[in-house]
């Protein structure tokens, strides 16, 4: 599903990061642990093709994404990768439904309202389809961001610090939700976090 080898990245200020190899199959889940500044976000951005690696290789579904460029990489990422960012980057002027329909549109896939309904029901916010983003609670907005990440049935889901701002109850809900989605959709899942509460939920772990 996803396999990386000998990845490294050098920042313009000269700091170089070398990353451990990753090898995950369908529906396999992994925590990427490390303190702030250890390179977790950089690693996720490399693995997802959001950031170009100077060295190393990344294979997703048999495709070496380090060799893809421009629109080819954008389309591949839209069709195979779901990313949950630290900030949700939802468009406040659009309804929940239209925020979600942007995902297949940008990936060059058909926009299917029934798929939006299905995912929102799965996440327990089916009644919020026509709501504006500013009308949602923080937890509801986060679920919309998760819905956007999984709408295209990606092969792999990346989540960057999805629980860092949550209390214990909502932390538990989000991690169980992500694990369930990974299992149901057979998507590999990598969560970057320094939240020690997650360690008991996902046994496979990589520490930077």
TrEMBL record:
Matching Pfam families: ABC_tran (PF00005)
Identification of the protein by name: ATP-binding cassette domain-containing protein
PANTHER family with a match to the protein in the record: IMPORT ATP-BINDING PROTEIN, TRANSPORTER, PUTATIVE-RELATED
InterPro entries assigned to the protein according to its UniProt record, in alphabetical order: AAA+_ATPase, ABC_transporter-like_ATP-bd, ABC_transporter-like_CS, ABC_transpr_LolD-like, P-loop_NTPase
UniProt keyword annotations, A-Z: ATP-binding, Nucleotide-binding
Protein species of origin: Chryseosolibacter indicus
Domain ABC transporter: 2-208
GO molecular function, one term: ATP binding
């Amino acid at each position: 599903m996803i396999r990386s080898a000998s990845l490294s990245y050098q920042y313009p200020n000269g700091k170089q990061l070398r990353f451990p190899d990753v090898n995950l199959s369908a529906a396999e889940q992994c925590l990427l642990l490390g303190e702030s500044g250890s390179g977790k976000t950089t690693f996720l951005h490399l693995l997802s093709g959001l950031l170009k690696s100077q060295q190393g290789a990344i294979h997703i579904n048999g495709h070496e994404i380090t060799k893809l460029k421009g629109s080819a990489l954008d389309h591949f990422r839209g069709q195979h990768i779901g990313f949950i960012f630290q900030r949700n980057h939802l468009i406040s002027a659009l309804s929940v439904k239209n925020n979600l329909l942007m995902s297949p549109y940008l990936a060059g896939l058909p926009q299917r309202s029934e798929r939006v309904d299905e995912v929102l029901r799965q996440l327990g916010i089916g009644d919020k389809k026509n709501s504006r983003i500013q009308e949602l609670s923080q937890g509801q907005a986060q679920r919309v961001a998760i819905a956007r990440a999984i709408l295209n049935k990606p092969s792999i889901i990346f989540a960057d610090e999805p629980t860092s701002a949550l209390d214990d109850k909502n932390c538990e809900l989000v991690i169980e939700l992500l694990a369930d989605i990974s299992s149901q959709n057979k998507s590999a899942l990598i969560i970057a976090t320094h939240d020690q509460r997650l360690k008991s939920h996902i046994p496979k772990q990589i520490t930077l």
